[in-house]
Each structure stands twice: as C-alpha cells, then as structure tokens.
Amino acid sequence: MYKLRPACFKWAAMAAIASHHVRLALFPLRLDADRTGYVDIPHSLRRPKLLLTQDVNTIRATNNAIFNDLFWVHFAYVSAEDGIERLRALLQAERHYAPVLAGFEAIDQGRRVLQDATTSAEARQRADDLIWEGNVGLLEHEQCALVQPNFDRLSFSSAWLVAIGSATSFEVRGVRQEIADFTSFYLYSFTRGIPHALRARKWPRITRFDDRWRWLVTSVVPRFRRFDADTQVVDASLQHIFDEARDFASSPCVLPRSPADGPRRAAKPRLWHRSRAQR
C-alpha cells in the first residue's frame, strides 16, 4: 500500500516495519510441528516458553486488529477517483473512525498541493508537513484505539517480549547508518526521557500510553521521516521485509528433529545488511 502512494502513506510503511519487528520478537516462540506438518500441541505445551502463549496471542491479535482496522481505509482511498469523498461517505457516521477521517483529510489536502507543479517550494514544504501530521493522526488512532486496550491485558512477564519489539531500525545500507536510525523505547527513556521520568516518579513502561507515545513522536517518527527521504532505501527495506515474511510463511512452526534430517529445520531471519544482489 505504501508503494502505491509513497508521498502520502507514511503510516503504512511504519506499520510494515513495526510488524516486522513483532515477527522477529515472536520468532523463538513458534509452536512445534509433527512430521506431517501439523502443530504438535502436546509437545509444544511442554516447552517453558509456552507459558507466554496468552500474551503472544494478544500481541498477534493486536497486529491483526491494526491491519483489519486501517488497511481497508487506505485501499478505499486509493482505489477511488476522489478518495477523500469516498472516505467521507464511509466514515463520517462512524465515531470510531473520526480521527482516521481527520488524518486522511490532512493527507489529501497535502497531496493536492504536491500534485500542482506550480506550487512554490515553501508551499510544498507546508504540504509535506500536513501529510505527516495526518499520518501521525493515524498512528495516534492506532495506539489509542487498538494497541492500548490490548496492552492493558498483557502480563508483567511479557514485558521483555514487547521491549524487543519496540527496538526499531529502518536501514539496510550498513551498520553505521543503521545505528543512526536505531531507536528503542528503553534507550530513549533513560536518555532523553529521563527528565520526564523524574518528574513523573514512575518507571517508564512501554505498555503505558503516555510513555510510549512520547517515544513515538519524539524519536521514532522523526527518524523515519529522515529515512523516508531516500525512496530507494525505503523500497529496499520493504522488499527485505516482504522476502523475510515469505520465508517465514513457508515454515510457520518448528519441524521435528530426526537423525536423518540433522538439526531442526526452520526458516531463519535474513541478515538485515544483505544487499539486493546477494538476495
């Protein structure tokens, strides 16, 4: 969806990258399969990591809920000649979607300015800012309406899993650039976020909306905006995510080990710095 309107659909790319990090965090917790390829529930339940099954399923359900809530809206907008009018007809009566419609109103207004070849550089910058404001509005809706209710259900023991998924980098160009674009909730909280934590007198928690939102708008969005300026690099990153998702889909469970087969067979995460030619 991002590739259809890269100048407008910033949230879609951020969501794809975030979903990729969730996949990596959940990778070690896949269920075991028997030799026919079916899930081996008795064997899986003997694994200590399955104590987190309920929280893992909550995270999975959250990821799917975000897709179900917002993908179709992007599709409706991009598939109509006047996308914003279609969204007004579909969403105006839905209270849940009021922030989403407001976000797309801003995105559409900015897009129309950018499409005008006679627009001044200053006006184009304002339009770009407006598009980003609209996409941040979609992000806020996602975090308030979809993520937070599910995060409120997570157990304390799953915090490490969420923390892994909250570490974000966008790069495929190499270690130096990836470090520049890397951000994690706890790294931010104990550096730039220290003054707020001291005032609040609370330990920062990724599952608390105010703490998480501060990190998103102060660290994640600005970094992605810089990253998004290079279209080729964004395309390479999204292609990497697509390729890895396809690999994982071919082996969703951990297959059993046998003397003939050698070690357990399973898809492994691709090296993030592998070039497109090497792939």
Question: Could you give a short description of this structure?
Answer:
The chain is an all-alpha fold and 279 residues long. The protein is built from twelve helices and no strands.
Question: In words, what does this structure look like?
Answer:
The protein has one domain. It is 61% helix and 0% strand. The protein has helices at residues 10-26, 41-45, 53-78, 83-91, 98-115, 121-151, 159-165, 175-181, 185-189, 194-200, 209-228, 231-249. Helix 3 (53-78) crosses helix 4 and helix 4 (83-91) runs antiparallel to helix 5 (98-115).
Annotation keywords:
279 residues; mainly alpha; 0% strand
Number of strands: 0
Tell me the domain tally. Answer: 1
Q: For the report, how would you describe the main beta sheet?
A: none
Helix percent band: 55-70%
Rg (C-alpha, Å)? 21 Å
- State which percent range the strand residues make up: under 5%
- The overall pLDDT, averaged over residues, is 80
What topology emerges from the helices and strands here?
Blueprint: H1 10-26, H2 41-45, H3 53-78, H4 83-91, H5 98-115, H6 121-151, H7 159-165, H8 175-181, H9 185-189, H10 194-200, H11 209-228, H12 231-249
Helix pairs in contact: 1-3, 1-7, 1-12, 3-4, 3-6, 4-5, 5-6, 6-11
